Amino acid sequence: MGLTIIEKIVSAKSGVEAHAGDTAWITQDYVTARDFGGASVVKNFREAFGADAQVFDPARVFFTLDCNAPANTVGYATNQQVCRDFAREKGLQVYDVDAGIGSHLLIEMGLALPGSTAIGTDSHYNILGAVGSFGQGMGDLDVAYGFKHGRVWFDVPHTIRVNVKGKLMSHASAKDLTLAVVKHFGSDGLIGKCAEFYGDVIDALDVPGRITLASMATEMSAVGIFIPPNDGVVKWLARRTMGKVEHVHADADAKYAEEVTIELGDIEPMIACPFSPDNVRTVREVVEEGVRIDSGFIGSCTNGRAEDFAEAYAQLEGGNVAERVTLKLVPATREVYAEMLFGGLLEKLFSVGALVHNQGCGGCAAGQVGMTGEGEVQVSTSNRNFRGKQGAGRTYLASPATVAASVRAGRIAVPEVIK
Fold first, then answer.
1. Distance between CA atoms of 188 and 103, rounded to whole angstroms?
2. Residue 388 pLDDT more than 90?
3. What are the CA-CA distances from residue 130 to residues 46, 118, 238, 344 (Å)?
4. Helix, strand, coil percentages in the chain from 3-state DSSP, rounded to 5
């Protein structure tokens, strides 16, 4: 019987042919912890294995300080220093507060490759499925065990094959496709399962677009979303690694729990209204309600790539952020920031009134750029808009183009068609 992508990866990393429903011990290529949870991992590691214990491989264990970067509370600053001190003691790498989002770094550095595995203390680590890698966010105890042994046990999930039919309209992007998918499945439509995505509109996505789609697997309660890498993705990754990059795909006779076809037609700009990522409507519908906004946020692991900021600037070029509206931008990584800086995009965004913060998560951690005050209305590219998640205000989720068009208009607006 053929294997799905997750079954293939687990089989390769466990040494035993694994099928949905099996439990397997999976070898990890990388085990990481971030500032959120990292100090607890250190504490659990010391308590379980002793002060003198070493990690399984110092070259494959590291910290990413991305959630609150730089730290703006004593608690986060202390947690980050605990991670630095432990890393110095054990000879580990730290990607500090100037590096950016850990999951993005794994992809950028050519560490997350098709068929690879990684765990970390990040609920969106399944974003690695964008390049055919199996990433999983786990608790502090599991990650501490991974630090020591380089493997964890895992219940192999069932997989749903998702065939997406439709095409993006000229003023729509990967985020609009993603929100349309979230609308279809809802917040629990993929609960406990993996999903493999297929279709022309999926295959046409570049790496940033695939990151956007995979980053919202958690919002559908999925274990992860796998987008089989095409030749373009393989070449993109090959430029970033010394190792060989190979395709990962399901067998032709793989057994799926279900096969679903989503008919999306012409995909137009979409928006998730407060207070749930699956409360999705078309931007066109919401525009009719005349929703005034106070701020916009572009960034997070969902839309923090240079291409996302270029998409936003295309809507702002020749205009400005509206009076009494603030546009906050947070690049995902130092590489993205450098591309914007040296390519001139940063200057262009500054000239139209955007506020650019240093690289990191932003928005999703209390006190960081992207938080809202009581009564504030924000349009954001992040992946969650639960009550209180991004502050006390009301957050709408949309594409970079919709955010930019909205901050220019001072109200939720449909992005213009860019010729």
1. 23
2. no
3. 34, 13, 15, 28
4. 35, 20, 45
pLDDT for the residue 419 = 64
> What local confidence, expressed as pLDDT, does residue 417 receive?
82
Residues 221, 191: contact at Cβ < 8 Å? Answer: yes
User: Residue 300 has what DSSP assignment?
Assistant: T
411 in Cβ contact with 293 (< 8 Å): yes
pLDDT of 368: 81
**Alpha helix (H) ranges present in 130-173?**
140-149
**316 Cβ neighbours under 8 A, 6+ residues apart:** 349, 352, 354, 404, 407, 408
pLDDT at res. 242: 83
Residue 224, judged by CB atoms within 10 A of its CB (0-12, 13-18, 19+), counts as: buried
Judge whether 367 and 339 are in contact, CB under 8 Å: no
Q: Can you tell me the mean pLDDT for 161-189?
A: 96
Cis peptide before 275 (omega within 30 of 0): yes
Mean pLDDT score, 23-47: 96
Q: For 206, phi and psi rounded to 5 degrees?
A: -80, 180
Rounded Cα–Cα distance for residues 155 and 23 (Å): 4
**CA dihedral (115, 5, 248, 133) positive or negative:** negative
